[in-house]
Design a protein that fits this description.
The structure is a single chain. By secondary structure, the chain is mostly helical. Helix 1 packs antiparallel against helix 2.
């Protein structure tokens, strides 16, 4: 910037009226030197401008890339938030399954299903409660099958007893019809000697 200012000063001196008396060839030599210097300064200014434009273009490109990355992240964030909302609104069958209460689960479940680590992890706790519920339902189903088998056996025995009672009543009736009723005996039986 200092050299540029000096070159401009020298040009101003050339056009000032004081130097018109001096030899025109020396003024021309001096003017040519100053024009050459001015051209060099112009080239340097153009090179500096190109360098600034290039730096600006690179900075704009970097900024555009960063902005594009930000837009992509914001889009992905919105997409994930929508997916999370969908998952939260999803009505699963497990929500309608009647489960043992948490206190009953803590009392009845096996120790490995209700450890401190499990009780602190909400997801694992729900999985363990569902698994425990399944095992208990299967156990109750087996008990119900055995109960039904025993009930069927009891009903069968009851039916057989009723048929035997009916048959016994029929036989008693026939015996009563075939054997006349004995009159009550008035004789005393002799005492054994």
């Amino acid at each position: 910037a200092m050299a540029e200012d000096q070159a401009i000063k020298h040009f101003q001196e050339l056009v000032s009226s004081d130097l018109t008396i001096v030899d025109p060839t020396s003024i021309q030599i001096r003017a040519n030197a100053l024009v050459a210097r001015l051209k060099a300064l112009n080239r340097n200014a153009n090179a500096a401008t190109r360098a600034c434009k290039q730096a600006t273009t690179e900075a704009r490109h970097d900024m555009d890339q960063t902005h594009l990355g930000l837009q992509n992240l914001l889009y992905e964030k919105r997409h994930l938030e929508r997916e999370i909302d969908k998952c939260r609104q999803f009505a699963s069958i497990y929500q309608d399954v009647p489960l043992y209460s948490l206190s009953e689960f803590k009392t009845l479940a096996p120790p490995e299903a209700r450890s401190d680590d499990v009780l602190q992890n909400v997801h694992q706790l729900m999985l363990n409660r569902l698994s425990f519920e399944l095992v208990e339902r299967q156990r109750h189903e087996e008990l119900l099958k055995h109960s039904k088998l025993k009930l069927a056996t009891v009903e069968s025995v009851k039916t057989q007893i009723e048929s035997l009672m009916k048959a016994a009543a029929d036989i008693q009736k026939r015996v009563d019809e075939l054997v006349p009723a004995l009159p009550p005996s008035t004789a005393t039986t002799p005492a054994p000697t």
